[in-house]
Write a structure and sequence with these properties.
This protein has one domain (3-146): Trna Endonuclease, Chain: A, domain 1 (3-Layer(aba) Sandwich). It contains three helices and five strands, in the order ααβββαββ. The protein has helices at residues 10-15, 36-57, 106-122, and strands at 61-69, 72-80, 83-92, 130-139, 142-146. It has a five-stranded mixed sheet with strand order 1-2-3-4-5, sandwiched between helices. The relative contact order is 0.16.
């Protein structure tokens, strides 16, 4: 991920970011529009890259990233043996608004289940023997993986 000046280690970029309370208008992420939304998109993309690398290093196969339909998006779709794993990644620089995993409430869980069913119908390379939903929480550059979160 050397594009945008973020280097090969996005987790280092996350660790060096000020908390949301410390962010100033002059703080800009290289290569992104100077908007709060642009900064959040970049933060989210970096968190997803960290999560993908974590899973890849443990032998998971990445089948899809940012799989989108009108109803929403699945951040990562993985395969581990005969199991399909659907992953929601939440990234924050501070816990001022709660820990990242708390943002995956009931409505989001229902939406992800529906999207997973659609992915299985449309894009799965084979039948599902096991399905799991994980939530990856990245807070200040530290990753926490909640396997079988819901």
């Amino acid at each position: 991920m050397s594009e945008g000046g973020l280097g090969d280690h996005p987790e280092q970029w996350l660790l060096n970011q000020p908390s949301s309370g410390e962010r100033r208008k002059s703080d800009r992420v290289p290569g992104t529009p100077g908007t709060q939304a642009g900064w959040r998109r970049t933060l989210g993309a970096q968190g997803e890259a960290i999560a993908a690398n974590w899973y890849r290093s443990r032998g998971y196969e990445i089948l899809a990233r940012n799989w989108r339909r009108r109803e929403g998006e699945i951040d990562l779709v993985l395969r581990n043996g005969s199991a399909y794993v659907f992953v929601e990644v939440k990234t924050r620089t501070s816990d001022n608004f709660g820990v990242p995993a708390e943002a995956v409430g009931r409505d989001k869980q229902v939406r992800l289940r529906h999207l997973a069913a659609r992915w299985l119908q449309e894009d799965a390379p084979g039948p599902a023997r096991e399905i799991r939903f994980d939530v990856v929480s990245i807070l200040g550059g530290k990753i926490e993986v909640i396997e079988g979160a819901f």
